[in-house]
Design brief:
With 372 residues, the protein is mostly helical. 81% of the residues lie in helices and 0% in strands. The chain starts with a helix and ends with a helix.
Amino acid sequence: MRLLLTIFLLISVFYSVLAQKEVDDFTLRKQQEEEIDYESTIFDAFSQKIKGNINESLDLYLKCLKINPSSSACMYEISQLFFLSNDVDASIFWMEKATSINPQNEWYNLFLLDLYKQKKNFSKGIGLCKKIIKNNPENILNYYELAILYTNSLDKSKAFSQYKIIEKKFGYNVDLYEQMYSSYLYLKDYNNARKILQSLIDKNPNEETYYSDLLQLCKNYKDVNYSISIAEQYLKLNPVSEVVNFELLKMYFIIKDTDKIFNQLNKILLNKNFDVKNKFNLLNNVLKDSLNDFNLTKIDTLSSNFVISNPSDFESHLIRAQFFYSNNKIDSALSEYYKVYKINKTLPDLYDKLIEIELKNQNWKQVNIVCK
């Protein structure tokens, strides 16, 4: 009896194991089929995305999610597809689902952060950025991102507390102060923006860009006298800076200091390293607009200095000739026109002007020479 019972139990166990094996085999086959289907669909979805077929790709990724509902990678792709379709809200929805499943994925978090910034949802952006920093506390770019988010949300106190944290953790660097300057500009805090630029100048006295930025800043806020002091300070270090020399001249015109205008014009016109066209345009404007500020002797000096620095440039002589002629200095004008003639004999109106002047002087012999 015991033997029969033992045999019966063994048979029962055998068939139970056999049945379970069949179930396991079926489940395994089904899982394998689903994996193959999933991988094939993922490949098709990616191919459609590459081809630019957004809707087809989206349908395929959604199909993948039915196979694997917890695939954060699919959710990320779906989010990107909605973004490409200019549906930022839907893109955010799917990206939030992806990051809830995979909160440590920095690429997911950074993409979601960009979406928040596009929607100007700075409060969510700030919260997410703090998590990103917590996940990766050694990446300085994320600290900058948080400071910029505070700036964009107009929270100046937290923005500059964040900049202090950056300096304390990572030390001084130029990028930090340049970003602080940009934040102060965005917040329209002129005084602190000026202090930051001055600090950059103190630490980088030969960097022309900071002087130029500070000059522009002071001009925008009508702080001309401070601008002048900065420009003069820089030109002591780098007297051949064309940009700053021209900026300084503009400011002298603003305060209408005739003596300083005249001296600065001379410096520019005599400098052989400065662009000839810039100097020519400058002198031309001075001759047109500054006759009330300068006597003819000073104007003559300026134009003469331009010629000295550009002796082979016929335009320098031409502008002097035109100036003299317009002020009835006929002999001086004629002298300059002949200098133009020696350098460039192809100017179309030059001969007419020479004949006109020589006829006024009744210099018939010279008229014949020019006509020939």
